[in-house]
Amino acid sequence: MGLLQATAQNSDSQLESLNHLNIKPFLERLQESGVLPLKSKEAIQTMQMNVGKICNLSCKHCHVEAGPLRRESMSQAVMAQGLQVMADHGIKALDITGGAPELNPNFPWLIQEAKKLNRQVMTRTNLTVLDDEKYGWMPEFYAEHQVEVVSSLPYYTEKDADRMRGNGVFQSSIKLLKKFNELGYGREGGSLKLNLVYNPGGAFLPAAQQGIEADYRRVLLDQHGITFNSLFAIGNFPVGRFLTFLKNSGNLQRYMEQLAGAFNPSTVQNVMCRDMVSLSWDGYLYDCDFNQMLGLPDSPQHISACRKEDLCRREITVHNHCYACTAGSGSSCGGSVV
């Protein structure tokens, strides 16, 4: 079985699981709220590039199902096409995700070329990959090119962080966060932005972001001398490995009931898919990274054929996993948390 066929079958299986739930379909909730069709804005602000599924970790919550054995990796040609679309249509920000973006050999080239276009560049990182001697130079490279760093730190205690990501991950992450601080990242009033991402370790929704951020700030500063700019508390999406975990543990129905019960119609106008577009490793366009992993829509457009009207005021494809973007006060969404 070929890679694309296997991926399509996996996406179909996931969608089938999300279809057969005792909850009101997300599409109906949007209809009741008077926001159908949900469309992107007049101007797209961000292109998110998922540069591949290769990662040094195999986290149990990963919606990309990334890991060391994956082989999907964006070519320089696809990157160049994405940058050309950004230039042609005035897209100001590049958000790079994966997998571990650092493991794509074209990753430094992408950052350099985006900076030549005077674009804002943000990269997601799991931090631990930068503890490898082969990639140890990258924090300085990020600082030199004024790259905003969004680093995943599942929790501020070693036991909980390692339970999600593997033994040694927490200490490795702390080491790298200290290095970023030494380079000037995460300092109040500084130009080098260091943001952290928290996501729950089980089948429950995150607590209020303000409280979690205060806890992270206190513990990381008091125990490790680490500072950062902002923390994003993001609920886990029922996609990929986390969906498998929910099904195998018998928690899928209960978790989806939590998400559906927390639906807040006031968040819909600000979901990130409305002012961004997601580019897959093989060059296809999606509304967000989660739709990308689910193969939504069924026939995505290739970046080589992209026109402005394909980006702006396009109708956004939604499904039941979208409840995760509209739960509670509204978390940042639309991005892979590596």
TrEMBL record:
The record's keywords, sorted A to Z, are: Iron, Iron-sulfur, Metal-binding, S-adenosyl-L-methionine
- Pfam families named among the record's database cross-references: DUF3641, Radical_SAM
Q: Which Gene3D superfamilies match?
A: Aldolase class I
Q: Which named protein is this?
A: Radical SAM domain protein
Task: Please give the InterPro entries that the UniProt record associates with this protein.
Answer: Aldolase_TIM, ArsS-like_C, rSAM, rSAM_ArsS-like, rSAM_sf
Q: Which domain of life is it from?
A: Bacteria
Q: Which organism is it from?
A: Desulfitobacterium hafniense (strain DSM 10664 / DCB-2)
Which part of the chain is the Arsenosugar biosynthesis radical SAM protein ArsS-like C-terminal domain? 205-336
Instruction: State one molecular function term (GO).
Output: iron-sulfur cluster binding
Question: Which residue ranges does the record assign to the Radical SAM core domain?
Answer: 49-187
